[in-house]
Amino acid sequence: MTKGYWIAHVDVTDPEAYKAYVKLNGIAFAKYGAKFLVRGGASEVRGGKLLPRHVVIEFTSFAAAKACYDSPEYQDAVKVRNTAGTVDIVIVEGYDG
User: Fold this and answer.
1) Can you give the residue ranges of every domain in the chain?
2) Terminal-to-terminal C-alpha distance of the chain
3) Do 58 and 35 form a contact (C-beta atoms < 8 A)?
4) What is d(CA 80, CA 72) in angstroms, rounded to the nearest whole number?
């Protein structure tokens, strides 16, 4: 089964609200087996325009990645996330080559 991924680019404008979002999103991420591959850290944009913080989260499947995002637990976190800054997010299917 092909894994699923969230790729997010984030600009945190309210660090306290973002901390609350991180606490809430952990509930959904634990339920759906999310694994952080990238969570902030140093980066260099080499082309185009991106928000300054980058996050990549791995799930066991594309279906699990979508289910996590759509879950009531994560949607509760989204309400807080939307007050914490700007987020561009895509859910993608992995490549098994």
Assistant:
1) 4-93
2) 12
3) yes
4) 13
Give the ranges where the chain is alpha helix by DSSP (H).
15-31, 62-70, 72-84
Return the closest-CA partner of residue 55 out of 96, 85, 95. Answer: 85
The Cα–Cα gap between 45 and 23 comes to 28
- Pairing label, strands 35-39, 4-12: unpaired
Backbone angles phi, psi at 96, to 5 degrees: -100, 0
Q: What pTM was computed for the model?
A: 0.93
Do residues 6 and 72 touch, judged by C-beta distance below 8 A? no
**Cα–Cα distance for residue pair 15/12, rounded to 1 Å:** 6
Domain 4-93 - what CATH class?
alpha beta
Per-residue pLDDT tens for 12-62? 999 999 999 999 999 999 999 999 999 999 999 999 999 999 999 999 999
